[in-house]
């Protein structure tokens, strides 16, 4: 036999490296100086807008954010060429400089737009703003002139244990400060600009590889990270100066997050599309309302609240079993339509149980108002309390209770996700027929997902009824189910941190962006479209789903390469 030798392609020379411009690094340094100098000068002639940026040599809040961005750019420039080059060997300083420069340029353009629209035009823009804009452009141009580097594997980067724990503490403190500062901004433009700043910093941290390192640190010190997160959440009310408005928003975020976490079991793990999930939250709320001491409550039994929570959760779980048993034989679009119908049936049923169209259980469209505040062990959640001289109002009291609830919900989700049941749900989500062929009890696990998800939503609903002091059918419309589903898709299906982040974004932004009330849904739709285009796995991707998307991308790349070779051979 004659050996058939496979032709070996000739070695090709690597493309020449991009020449480094000698002015790139000095231009970046000059840009940093201009941004800092410009931020110490006045930006606006009108002191009534953007929290007063009209004072020279006394930077306001938005000017301080620009200075922070410039300082981070300076650190990356020194990592590229200077005393911090050892740091630059691990981080992609060039991508970070590009991101910070482009983001700061966008930030300053929005500053000019805000001053122009809030006052009598750009004539009210002072030279400091223009100097800062020029500095931002210089940083961006410098970043594009600098060459990219081959990075090391960040999983190999290890620091002393105490330093890694300190890194987690600093990161959590920064999160607490950012949340407190952003919620304290009452001006709509200032809030939007603060969000732009946070987005720019977060993107720069991801592109430099810093967050990859933080992710590995978090994996190595998972208990410390979890504890630090709950400490930050516990300290949050102490940063709000007794603001009931901000604490009310925080409570809505926690209720929304706990409910979304229950839906995450159904959608994120089991892969069942539920468009009527808000009904389970409503079932828990109505159960707590009819068993409360409200003058409009229609049930004479008044058990302790812990019993009410269990009853409300059990009622919701029962509804989950009732709707799940006949409908889980269908899947996909048909399941979505059936669950959507169930959500509407629940809402109309609560409106009809008024004594005329049915038994008098819910007072019909009027709902059940006047629900008194909770009182557990002599502690009245409606009273103000002072801790370390800081006044904590009614919403702060409910916040701590909701924090305990969401901790329990996270624990349940994490344990189920890592259990045999969770692996069964994931198998059903990936391929139901294959899972059934391997002996997985598909119908039973689907039903369990509905029941457990509804149970967790019912728990959240019982607290929501007392915090809102009233329940009515119009609180549980289809749009709320759509927002819950969007929070999971936006944050990352099957994850904990992602769903909580998505719930925070979708509950916080509509409250703080009432200035854009006519365009809020448009912005929401654009956000989801961009997410589906650029990051379909969500803001915080599940490891399983991330591997799936990477495998799909690799398969697509292989198909494209094979097609290209076939076309070349045909020619």
UniProtKB/TrEMBL annotation:
Keywords: Cell membrane, Membrane, Transmembrane, Transmembrane helix
CDD domains recorded: TM_PBP1_LivM_like
Coiled coil: none
Cellular component GO terms, alphabetical: plasma membrane
Pfam families recorded: BPD_transp_2
GO molecular function per UniProt: branched-chain amino acid transmembrane transporter activity
Membrane topology (UniProt): Multi-pass membrane protein
Localisation: Cell membrane
Transmembrane segments: 23-45, 57-79, 100-117, 129-147, 159-182, 188-206, 224-243, 249-270, 277-299, 305-325, 398-416, 437-463, 483-506, 518-534
Primary location class: membrane
Domain of life the protein comes from: Bacteria
Protein name: Branched-chain amino acid ABC transporter permease
């Amino acid at each position: 036999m004659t050996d058939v030798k496979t032709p070996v392609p000739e070695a090709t020379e690597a493309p020449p490296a991009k020449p480094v411009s000698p002015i790139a690094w000095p231009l970046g340094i000059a840009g940093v100086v201009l941004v800092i100098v410009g931020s110490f000068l006045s930006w606006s002639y009108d002191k009534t807008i953007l929290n007063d940026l009209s004072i020279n040599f006394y930077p306001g809040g938005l000017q301080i954010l620009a200075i922070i961005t410039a300082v981070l750019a300076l650190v990356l420039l020194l990592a590229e060429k200077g005393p911090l080059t050892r740091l630059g060997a691990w981080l992609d300083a060039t991508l970070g400089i590009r991101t910070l420069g482009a983001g700061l340029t966008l930030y300053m353009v929005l500053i000019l737009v805000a001053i122009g629209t809030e006052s009598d035009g750009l004539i009210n823009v002072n030279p400091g703003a223009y100097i800062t804009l020029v500095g931002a452009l210089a940083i961006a141009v410098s970043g594009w002139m600098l060459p990219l580097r081959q990075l090391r594997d960040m999983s190999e980067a290890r620091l002393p244990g105490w330093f890694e724990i300190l890194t987690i503490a600093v990161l959590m403190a920064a999160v607490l400060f950012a949340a407190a500062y952003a919620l304290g901004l009452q001006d709509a433009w200032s809030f939007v600009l603060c969000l732009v700043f946070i987005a720019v910093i977060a993107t720069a941290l991801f592109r430099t590889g810093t967050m990859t390192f933080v992710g590995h640190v978090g994996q190595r010190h998972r208990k410390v990270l979890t504890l630090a997160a709950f400490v930050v959440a516990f300290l949050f009310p102490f940063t709000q100066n007794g603001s009931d408005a901000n604490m009310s928003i925080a409570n809505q975020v926690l209720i929304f997050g706990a409910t979304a976490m229950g839906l995450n079991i159904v959608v994120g793990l089991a892969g069942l599309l539920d468009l009527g999930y808000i009904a389970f939250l409503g079932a828990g709320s109505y159960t707590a309302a009819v068993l409360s001491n409200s003058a409009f409550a229609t049930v004479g039994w008044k058990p302790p609240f812990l019993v009410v929570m269990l009853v409300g959760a059990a009622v919701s779980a029962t509804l989950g079993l009732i709707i799940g048993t006949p409908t889980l034989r269908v899947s996909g679009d048909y399941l979505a339509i059936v669950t959507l119908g169930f959500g509407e049936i629940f809402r109309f049923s609560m409106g009809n149980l008024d004594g005329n169209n049915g038994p008098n259980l819910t007072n019909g469209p009027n709902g059940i108002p006047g629900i008194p505040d909770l009182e557990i062990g002599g502690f009245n959640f409606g009273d103000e309390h002072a801790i370390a001289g800081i006044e904590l109002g009614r919403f702060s009291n409910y916040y701590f209770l909701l924090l305990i609830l969401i901790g329990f919900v996270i624990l349940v989700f994490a344990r189920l996700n890592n259990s045999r049941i969770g692996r069964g749900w994931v198998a059903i989500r990936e391929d139901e027929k294959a899972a059934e062929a391997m002996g997985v009890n598909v119908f039973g696990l689907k039903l369990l997902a509905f029941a457990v998800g509804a149970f967790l939503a019912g728990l959240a609903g019982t607290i929501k009824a007392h915090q809102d002091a009233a329940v009515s059918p119009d609180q549980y419309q289809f749009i709320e189910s759509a927002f819950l589903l969007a929070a999971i898709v936006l944050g990352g299906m099957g994850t904990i941190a992602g769903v909580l982040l998505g719930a925070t974004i979708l509950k916080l932004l509509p409250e703080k962006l009432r200035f854009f009330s006519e365009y809020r849904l448009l912005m929401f739709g654009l956000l989801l479209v961009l997410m589906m285009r650029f990051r379909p796995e969500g803001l915080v991707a599940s490891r399983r789903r991330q591997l799936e998307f990477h495998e799909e991308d690799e398969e697509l790349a292989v198909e494209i390469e094979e097609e290209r070779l076939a076309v070349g051979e045909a020619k």
